[in-house]
Specification:
elongated; 8 strands; two-stranded parallel sheet; alpha+beta; about 475 residues
Length: about 475
């Protein structure tokens, strides 16, 4: 009996699982704006890029810490021989200031034990400064690692901002593509139903001798082609739906109910104003300008390498010595040292070549910035032209669809009245389907043209102001 109960329970579970598997997932209603917002928050590729940006930010902070190089460290040593022992301990603190000088302060206590003699105790306070001269003097050299790391971080942020805008365009493309596919499927289903009815009517009339056999065969062929197109579009819809879910960072089998977005009616600026808007709103153009500043700084650094490398070192010590720690603690003695250390290589050919190369690099960066500006001007002109063209084609496509619908209606009425041929009706129906699909394509193109224009102008997903040309930062 127990086995029978187990079998019944297992059958019930399997039956329930089959029912759940057969039921489609509940569709989630989502607008295009919500889809773009969700993709910007949850897209996996964008999240990976954000982690890379965060890594560059941490690297910039670490570089700043290394430049200042503030350290507080204990010092100590201990040793013993057959003649006695020696130990010392203390604390050292140091920091690098904007001029490149290294400031250090040291406090030490030392005890020397010698067999057969009194112990020697010593306490010392020492201040030392080492200031680079000429080549490595000043914040230009001192801050270079931090400045370079910060530039790398800003470049990564700009690339990420542009990636966000590009992702918004991809979401809009996929969203509009899904709407178009679903509407195409509706048109294909309606076309298939009309062709099916027309074939049935022609087949009945062919048996009555009122229609040619070739007309029936042509309609039968169209029935098969209509079913093939319908299945192909359904497969495309399934693939595209998974791509859409992936863009949004959602499960691939997620089902969405899309709300057709209204066409964006943009107030088009003139070419010059549009180019100015793009140059002010595009982080990649700001990066090209920043690359010029970077190259100019590298020229200054390369020229600095032609200067001699000297350092001025000054040290002052106050100390006390004696047999007791009280004697050492009086700190009644002092000494000082001032000196210059130099590393001068008279063969400066390599440094001169580096300076010349950096100047060529700076000139190349200026040319690259001009190329970016020209490319941006072409992108803006193309986007403006495409937007105007697609809006005009949408109007024409709507008119053509209305004409095709009227023609198909007249052709069908004439055939049903026995005054036309099945070929005429099938041609009209095929033309109507083509006109409907063309209008859907024109509608999609007109919608996407607006989003692409905003992307080109840098207004689709605006970047942070400090990353733009002329912005703070």
């Amino acid at each position: 009996m127990w086995k029978g109960v187990q079998a019944a329970a297992l059958a019930a579970v399997l039956s329930a699982a089959q029912v759940l598997a057969a039921e489609p997932a509940a569709a989630e209603r989502i607008t295009l704006d919500e889809a773009i917002e969700g993709a910007l928050l949850h897209n996996l590729d964008l999240a990976q890029s954000a982690r890379d940006v965060q890594g560059n930010r941490l690297a910039a902070e670490a570089a700043q810490v290394r430049v200042v190089d503030f350290q507080v460290a204990p010092e100590g040593a201990a040793g013993a021989t057959d003649a006695g022992g020696d130990w010392q301990g203390g604390l050292r603190a140091g920091v690098t200031v904007p001029t490149g000088a290294r400031l250090e302060a040291v406090g030490l206590a030392r005890q020397i034990e010698v067999e057969g003699a009194a112990d020697l105790r010593r306490q010392e306070l020492r201040v030392e400064i080492s200031q680079p001269l000429f080549r490595n003097f000043g914040p230009l050299v001192r801050n270079e690692p931090a400045v370079a790391a910060d530039e790398t971080w800003r470049a990564a942020r700009r690339a990420w901002e542009r990636e966000r805008s590009g992702l918004a365009v991809r979401v809009a493309e996929c969203y509009e593509s899904l709407i178009r596919l679903r509407r195409q499927i509706e048109r294909d289903e309606a076309f298939a139903a009309r062709i099916e009815r027309l074939w049935a009517l022609a087949d009945a009339r062919e048996r009555q001798g009122r229609t040619e056999r070739t007309e029936v065969m042509r309609l039968d062929l169209q029935r098969g082609e209509a079913q093939m197109n319908l299945e192909a579009r359904r497969a495309q819809l399934d693939i595209r739906s998974r791509e859409f879910a992936d863009l949004l960072g959602r499960p691939l089998d997620a089902v969405f109910l899309l709300v057709p977005p209204p066409l964006l009616d943009l107030d088009l600026p003139g070419p010059e104003q549009a180019l100015a808007t793009a140059m002010a709103g595009r982080p990649d153009y700001a990066q090209a300008l920043d690359d010029i500043l970077t190259a100019d700084r590298q020229v200054l650094l390369a020229r600095r390498d032609l200067w001699p490398d000297l350092s001025l070192t000054a040290r002052h010590s106050t100390y006390g010595e004696g047999g007791d720690w009280s004697d050492a603690g009086r700190l009644d003695q002092e000494d000082w040292f001032v000196g210059i250390v130099g590393d001068v290589n008279l063969n400066r050919r390599s440094a001169r070549l580096d300076a010349e190369r950096s100047e060529l690099e700076a000139e190349g960066r200026r040319q690259v910035a001009e190329l970016v500006r020209r490319q941006l001007a072409m992108e803006v002109h193309e986007a403006l032209t495409q937007y105007r063209r697609d809006r005009s084609e949408l109007v024409l496509a709507g008119r053509n669809r209305e004409l095709a619908a009227n023609r198909a209606e007249v052709a069908s009425a004439l055939y049903e009245a026995g005054r036309g041929s099945a070929d005429t009706v099938s041609d009209a129906e095929a033309d109507l389907l083509d006109a409907e699909l063309s209008e859907l394509g024109a509608r999609q193109a007109a919608s996407l043209a607006a989003y692409r224009l905003l992307h080109v102008l840098g207004r689709l997903v605006p970047a942070s102001p400090e990353l733009l040309a002329g912005g703070p930062g």
